[in-house]
Amino acid sequence: MAGWKKRFDHYTALAKEYGISNDRVAQENSYQHAEHYFRLMNAQPH
Asked: Where is the DUF4167 domain (predicted)?
């Protein structure tokens, strides 16, 4: 679903920004959100 891809991209970009600002907790949280949407995308039949 396109909405999940958009959210995955959003949280991945956010995690990268947090990494640049050296906020490791927020970075990990964003990566966990991204992983959730990644799993949803991969669970869908193609």
From this structure: 8-44
